[in-house]
Amino acid sequence: MADKEFISIQEAIDKGEGKVAIRGWIYRERGSSKIKFIVMRDETNIIQCVIEKSKVGDEKFDVADKLQIEASMKIHGTIKEDKRAPTGYEINVDDFEVVGPCDTFPISKDQSPEFLLDNRHLWIRSRKMVATMKIRSTIIGAIHKFFREKGYIEFDPPIFQPTQSEGGSTVFKVDYFGDTTYLAQTWQFYAEAAIFALGKIYDVSPTFRAERSKTSRHLTEFWMAEMEAAWMNLHSVTEIAKEEIRFIIKEVLKHHQKELELLKRDTKILEHYAEAEYPTITYKEALKILKEKYNMDVQWGKDLRTIEEEKLADHFKVPVVVTHYPVETMAFYKPEDPKEPGTALCFDMIAPEGYCEIVGGSQRSTDVEDMIKRLKAMGEDPKNYEWYFDLRKYGSVPHSGYGVGVERVIAWICGLENIKDAIGFPRTMLRKTP
Ligand code: 4AD
Ligand code: MG
Questions:
Q1: For residue 1, is pLDDT > 70?
Q2: Mean pLDDT score across all residues of the chain
Q3: Which of 138, 225, 341, 434 could disulfide-link 204, Cβ–Cβ 3.0 to 4.6 Å?
């Protein structure tokens, strides 16, 4: 069978009639002594194939009879519409070839999430994972498209970095030829250097946090899509973040109706997120809503907890941007707002349906003295940040940026229960294999 003859299962379905040649893996199989039904899958779809003893002969039928799921095969046959078949079409098999026979596949129905994670190298073939990974690819493509169309330049940061940037407690230490370095917690400091050369930049890159949280929202290795721009203030970046998220959802809706259906994701609600205006409120206003509507007391100065973020998003039913968190709880580079003392020029975007914080960003401090003071208070040696302070010495400009948690956005758009299913091979505090 010449390779060029083969078409994908979706192409075969689209053809709808006549001779076809497909190849893929057995997704389901059942049969009797005279007829065998095999549902084949490839990356595009599934299709039922029928092998009849009377047609292929005793010897070949014997081979078909012993086939187990996940064996790989090439199939030649005639496709026709059949309403009873899972995808509405069926291939009557003329001939087939087993390419890779299969042992009893370890994954069967109703297995625990932990078992599926232990067998992720095999579970990645599942229709749910395939649908999610396709949507993931579109989301990352959409991020590139969004920024490139706006004239942003892609800029890649180093992943080995000499300092922490988002808190020493979650930084991964790496032995670097006997010396110590760290894995990137954000691209931000390098982006802040690069805007002086490139103006408006973005990236999508791997990010590492030694998170001890065993939540459905934390990974230790995740992908962050960040942007940074010179001459930009807090208000402008929050508006770009809203536009970016809406754009991502529109792209997913445009290309993945089939996958969203397979994931049982309500597309009406996604259509709403794609078109709606997202409100911006301050932390102070957030506390007021929490108190008045949900009778929840949050002490001024405390970061919003998951339950509080959930309530806020529930109140608005669309992503909500919260700005002006108390400055003392914020990273050293988030400046105090001179117009609102005690609060920082920063923001989070909180997604509805319990997905919580999907974006974090801020205007950047240009006050070196203040940053040194705040670093010292955290027990950091400001000497290690001298190159970063240089950026304020040599022609500083107002600038801002933010980071989108790519897996959090995927989990939300796909309606996943756990962020671990938003990435091929998840890494968490308790999982670093396979
Ligand atoms: O809010 P974060 O910590 O912001 C920063 O790192 C800034 N330096 C970004 C910037 O301004 N350029 O992280 C940004 C986003 C969060 O809103 C969240 O969506 C995601 O990254 N994130 C995580 N996603 C999965 N697992 C984790 N452990 C995450 N930590 C943060
Ligand atoms: Mg944050």
A1: no
A2: 97
A3: 225
